[in-house]
Amino acid sequence: MVSFKRLIALASVVTGVLSQSVAYTDSGINFQGIFETTHGIQYGFVFPPTTATGATAQEFIGEIIVPVVNQWVGLAFGGQMADNLLMVAWPNANNIVFSPRYATGYIQPTPYAGPTVTTLESSVNSTYWKWIFRCQNCTTWDGGSMDTNGGPVFAWVIGLSPVFTPSSPASDFNEHDDFGFWGEITADAHDPNYASYLNIGSSTTTSKSSTTTSKSSTTTSKSSTTTTTTTTTTTSSTKTTTSTTSTTTTPLTSPTPYDYIIIGGGPGGLVSADRLSAAGKKVLLVERGGPSTGETGGTDVPPWANGTSLTRFDIPGEFQAMFSGNTYWFCKDVNSFAGCLVGGGSSINGGLYWYPTDADYSAANGWPTSWTNNFNTYTALLKNRLPSTDNPSPDGIRYLEQTYPVMQSILNPMGYQAGTINNNPNFKDHVYGYSAYNFQEGKRWGPVATYFRTAKTRPNFSYAYWTYATSIARNGSLITGVQTNNTALGPNGFIPLTPKGRVILSAGSFGSPRILFQSGIGPLDQIQLVAANPTAAPFLPPQSQWLTTLPVGYNVQDNPSINLMFTHPSIDAYDNWAPILDDPRPADAAQYLKSQTGVFAGSSPKVNFWQALGGPDGKTRYMQGTVRPGFDSVTTAYPYNASQVFSITVYLSTGVTSRGRIGISSSQLGASILTNPWFTDPNDKATLVNGLQQIINSAKNVPQLTLITPDNTTTLQDYVDNYPPTSLNSNHWVGANSIGKVVDSNLLVNGTSNLFIVDASVIPSLATGNPQGLVMAVAEQGIANILALAGGP
Ligand SMILES: Cc1cc2nc3c(=O)[nH]c(=O)nc-3n(C[C@H](O)[C@H](O)[C@H](O)COP(=O)(O)OP(=O)(O)OC[C@H]3O[C@@H](n4cnc5c(N)ncnc54)[C@H](O)[C@@H]3O)c2cc1C
Ligand SMILES: *[C@@H]1O[C@H](CO)[C@@H](O)[C@H](O)[C@H]1NC(C)=O
Ligand SMILES: *[C@@H]1O[C@H](CO)[C@@H](O)[C@H](O)[C@H]1NC(C)=O
Ligand SMILES: *[C@@H]1O[C@H](CO)[C@@H](O)[C@H](O)[C@H]1NC(C)=O
Ligand SMILES: *[C@@H]1O[C@H](CO)[C@@H](O)[C@H](O)[C@H]1NC(C)=O
Ligand SMILES: *[C@@H]1O[C@H](CO)[C@@H](O)[C@H](O)[C@H]1NC(C)=O
Ligand SMILES: *[C@@H]1O[C@H](CO)[C@@H](O)[C@H](O)[C@H]1NC(C)=O
Ligand SMILES: *[C@@H]1O[C@H](CO)[C@@H](O)[C@H](O)[C@H]1NC(C)=O
Ligand SMILES: *[C@@H]1O[C@H](CO)[C@@H](O)[C@H](O)[C@H]1NC(C)=O
Ligand SMILES: CC(=O)N[C@H]1CO[C@H](CO)[C@@H](O)[C@@H]1O
Question: Is Signal among this UniProt entry's keywords (predicted)?
Fold first, then answer.
C-alpha cells in the first residue's frame, strides 16, 4: 500500500530558514523562483499586475524545468500536502501530462476540479522536460488560499519511479522520493507584461502541444503524428527486450488484427499463448509489465551475480528479497500483492507447486461435471510440460533442511506420514514432505521457461510488454478488439480482432475484474465508478449495453493463514534472509554462481504438510502447513535467539466457506479487496484454531523447541482473534469470475459471444495447496474447450 506520510513530517518542523525565490528570465518571461540544487529543478512563477481584479487576479503562470531522472514533480501551493491545491506533472512521450490534485490527508491525492490549466510551452528532450503553464482559478481552493502579495511557503515533491499510467492525468503514483519548501516572494512576482506571456505558446517551436485548454485535468491532446513505441510487437525472430522510445512521423493506420488477443502474461495467459499458437492461430499477448528472468530480457541481476544473466527472478533463493526495496514488480494499483511483469505471480512467488487433486475439481467445489470428469487428461499435459521437484539443487543434495527433522518430531506423534507429496496428490490428510517447486536447473522455471518459451518460437505468436489493456471494445455481445495504451499496436492503442476473433482475459484475480468493469461488465456500483473516471468513461459502451447481472468480484476466496514461530537449537534461520541480495554468505553465492546448486537453488519454504479437520458445522476443511527458516514479526516478552527461528504458516484450504469481494475502490480505479474473505464464517476460524492447537500441543513435547509467537503469555485464541486481517492474506485469490457464475463451462463470459477468461479468477473454490498448479491445469483444459467451441477463428 502506498502511504504519503513524509511530506507532513517535515512540514511540521519547518522553521524560518527557507530559501527565498529570486528573479530570473526564461522563454522571455520574468519569473520569481528557485533553482533547487539537489535535483537540479527550476521552479518559477509570475503573477498578473496587482491592479488585476476578478478572475484575472486569481491566476498565475508557473514553470518547471526538470532533469529526466525525475519521473514526476508535484507542487503544493499551500506549503503542505493535506487540504491544499496540488499540481502534479510528468512527461509522456513528447507531452506533459498534468493534473491538479487535492488530498484530505496523507494519502494518494485525487484529481481536483476547479482550476483551469493550460500548457503555454512544453518540451521533452533526452535530458530535461519543461512545462510552462497558466493556472486559472488557482489562488484559492477548498479551505484555503495563497497570499499573492507576500511570501507564502510553497512545497515541491519529486518521484523517481514513473506514475502508474503515464498517459492518464488521473494516474496514481507512489509516494514522492523527496520534497522541500521555499518562500515564494509573490510580492515581487507581479509583471506588467503578464498578458503578453499568455501568447508564448504560439511563438515557440518547442510547443506543438500547447493552447488546448484543459478543465479538470485533461491533458492537451496532440496530433497523432508521434508514436511512442514502448515495445515493438514482434514475431519470435526479432525478440522484444526492454522499452525503447522512438518517434515516427507517420500515423499507424492499419493495425494487425489477431485471432486471439490474450491480456496478461501470468500462468493462465502463458499456457493460453502456447496452446493457441500451437493450434495455428494468430495470437497476440499483451503484458502491462516488462521482462522478468534473463531469458525474457530481464537484467535485474543481484550485485553478487554481476556479469551473469541470473536475475533476481531466475534465482529461487532470492524469493524473500521480493518484499523489500523498490518492489517495481508488484502492481502498484492493486492493494494486495500481484506480479506485474511477464510470468505474473509465477515470476515473483515462492514457487511452491502442487498437482491438482480430485477435490480441487469436485462438484462440491463448484465445478461442472464436464471438468470433474476430464481433468486428469489436462493435469497430465501440465505435468509433462512442467514437472515438479522437491529437491531443487541439481547436485541432488538438500540444503538448509534443518526444519525437516524438527517437523518430524512434531508431526509423527500426531499420526502423520512422510511422503513425496506430488507422487500422490490426493493423499492430503496427515501427510508431510519436502516442499515441491516448479524450479529446474537450479532456476525459477514455471510457465515462463516452458509455455512462453515454446510460444515465442512460433511465427504466429507476438507479444508486447509495457502494454496496459484498459478495456475490451464491444458492440452488444460481440467483442471487437482490445483498448490498450500502446499506440504502436493500433491507432490510439486499439487492437482489432479478425472477423471471428476472440479475447482471452488473463489479467489475474484483481486485473481481470477491473478490465470487465471498464468494459461495462459487472455490478452497477463498479461500472459507475468507471463512469466517474474522466479517462476511462469514454471507453465504456453505452449504458444500455452494460451487463450488470454478472457477480464479477464476488465469491472470492483466499486461504486464511496464521504464522507460528518457534526456536530450536538445530535451526539455521539463514540470517532471516536479510543479506541475500546485497551480501549473501560467500560460499553459498560462489557455489550457486559456479553450478546453480546449493541454498540459492531453492526458495525459503522447506517442508509442507496437510491434515483434514472437522469443523463445528460438521464440514471437513483441510489445513496446509508451510515451514521455512526465518520469521516475519516475532512478538514475545522473552529473549530469544533470532538465529534459531523458524516459521510455520498454517493455512485453511479446501472446504473454506468464507467468501469476500474484490473490485475497484474509487473512481481512481485502484483494484482492492472490498470485503475481506477471511473468517467471515466463524466455522473457518474455529477449524483453523483447532488445527493450530494440535500443532502447538505436539510441539510442547519436543525437547528444546520453544514457541515464541504466540508466547506463553498469549492464548492461541487471543492471538488469532487479534491477528491483523491483512496478515491473513495468502495471495492465493480465486473465484472473482467463478465458473458457473460469471463464465460458463467453456470459460465464456456470460452474455458475450467471444470473451473468455483463463486465469485464477475462474476457479470457483480454493485449491488444497498453493494454486499455481491448478491455474495452469485449468488453462490447459479451458483452452482445449475454447479451441473445440464452434464459431471461432
Ligand atoms: C507474493 C506471492 C506469493 C505466491 N506464492 C505462491 C506459491 O508459492 N505457489 C503458488 O502456487 N502460488 C503462489 N502465489 C499465487 C500465484 O502466483 C497466483 O495464483 C498465480 O500467479 C495466478 O495466475 P494468473 O495467471 O491468474 O494471474 P497473475 O499471475 O496475476 O498474472 C496476471 C498477469 O496479467 C498482467 N496484467 C494485469 N492487468 C493487466 C492489464 N490491464 N493489461 C495487461 N496485462 C495485465 C499482469 O502484469 C500479470 O503478468 C503467490 C502469489 C503472490 C502474489
Ligand atoms: C474555482 O475552483 C473552485 C474549487 O477550488 C470551484 O468550486 C469553482 O467552481 C471554480 N470556479 C470556476 C469559475 O471554475
Ligand atoms: C533540453 O531541454 C532543456 C530545457 O528546455 C534545454 O535547456 C536543453 O538545451 C535541451 N537540450 C537539448 C539537447 O536540446
Ligand atoms: C502503458 O502502461 C504500462 C503500465 O502502466 C506502462 O508501463 C507503459 O509505460 C504504458 N505505455 C505507454 C505508452 O504509456
Ligand atoms: C558490474 O560489473 C561491471 C563491469 O565489470 C561494473 O562496471 C559494474 O560497476 C558492476 N556493478 C555492480 C553493481 O557491481
Ligand atoms: C453493432 O451490431 C449491430 C448488429 O448487431 C450492427 O447493426 C451495428 O452496425 C453494429 N455497430 C457497430 C458500431 O459496429
Ligand atoms: C544463537 O544461535 C546461534 C546459532 O545456533 C549460536 O551460534 C549462538 O551461540 C546462539 N547465541 C546465543 C546467545 O545462544
Ligand atoms: C514462558 O516462557 C518463558 C520463555 O520461554 C519461560 O522462561 C517461562 O518459564 C514460561 N512460563 C511458563 C509459565 O511456562
Ligand atoms: C447467464 O445469464 C443469464 C441471464 O442473466 C442467466 O439466465 C444464465 O443462467 C446465466 N448463465 C450462466 C452460465 O451463468
Ligand atoms: C492464422 C495465421 O496467421 N496463420 C499463419 C501462421 O504462420 C504460417 C507460416 O508463417 C502462415 O502460413 C499462416 O498463414
Answer: yes
